[in-house]
Amino acid sequence: MAALFLAGCGVRSSVVEETVVPERREIVVGFSQLGAESDWRSANSESMRSTFTAENGYKLLFEDGQQKQSNQITAIRTFIQREVDYIVLAPVTETGWDTVLQEAKDAGIPVVIVDRMVDVEDEDLFTCWVGSNFELEGRKAAAWLKRFTELQDIPPEDLHIVDIQGNLGASAQIGRTKGLERAVEENGWDLVAAVPADFTQAKGREVTALLLEEHEEINVIYCENDNEALGALEAIEAAGRKAGANLKEGEILIISFDGVRKEALQYALEGKISCIAECNPLHGPRVRAILETLEAGKVPDKLSYVTEGIYSGDASITQISVDGVNYPVTILTDSFIS
Ligand code: AHR
Questions:
Q1: What is this structure's pTM?
Q2: 63 near 45, Cβ under 8 Å?
């Protein structure tokens, strides 16, 4: 409660007015993060932690699921028991959430899904979702590859591609794999293999090393995130091959996703990674805006897609097109990265 004393000059009587400033209650948010597999994930966790602070009026209960859906389900049940105000879920995979989301709904706790999506029978089991259009990311990367190889006069049947996938069943894997498969079908490219590497650098290196031993013809590696791309690059160099866009000289072209880790952007500038489709991890303020909408008694959009770009160090393509929509390609420079 604050008291405001107004004493006007030359006014004999003093006016005392009391203004009641309502204390904003602390909002308790239970966040089930799926893990810590990549630089993207670390940036995403940091965005949530730095947004849902005591100064901003929140108490954040942060649980790391360590890539296991069972851990995430346990975390959600704990949040329900603790009667949090909101549950935020970044799901490791899409399916298997119906029961626990029904429990949250029965407890009257709104659930906001962030980053990857859930595949549930009843869409009312969650309040809303915010994240990336992963299939569009894949289609943009494939559109860049098509344009680039056309400009280089490389026939489609000469592209021998491997897809280093994310963890199977995650929206980011499903969408990016679909985006590539569609382009393979449309362009007549050779998809040699698709192997999961769980979005990690170590697995990216391991599976790429095996694939390069088995298939000498591989000349494009489509990595479903930057950590896998860094691992693939290590494997290429360990095998005595060279990463780059000069396919006619036997180089191996790497495509990647995220654009979060500085090192990956630096390699893109140098041409070791040819193209990176952006995936934006800064969801903290977006989720906060949703919770504020709910606090105000309003209804947020059910699905919110983040606008994302595409990066390359090669200046020959400044724009790509998907379904008749043009997307600018950001040509990387030193100043962009530093
Ligand atoms: O779901 C987003 C994806 O998950 C990011 O591309 C990847 O780096 C992360 O692990």
A1: 0.93
A2: no
236 CA distance to ligand 1 middle (Å): 22
One domain for residues 195 and 266: yes
Residue 228 Cβ < 6 Å to ligand 1: no
pLDDT of 21 strictly over 70: no
Domain containing 198 equals: 134-279+310-337
* 258 CB near ligand 1 (under 6 Å): yes
Phi, psi of 305 (to 5 degrees): -95, 135
Predicted pLDDT of residue 8:
37
Q: 324 and 222 in one domain?
A: yes
Percentage helix, strand, coil, to 5, in the chain? Answer: 40, 25, 35
Q: For residue 296, how far is its CA from the centre of ligand 1 (angstroms)?
A: 31
- State if residue 172 touches ligand 1 by the CB under 6 angstroms criterion: yes
Residue pointed to by tokens 């389900």: 73
Whether residue 239 is predicted with pLDDT greater than 50 in this model: the reply is: yes
Q: Are residues 218 and 298 in the same domain?
A: no
Render pLDDT for 213-225 as a digit per residue (tens, 0 to 9): 999 999 999 999 9
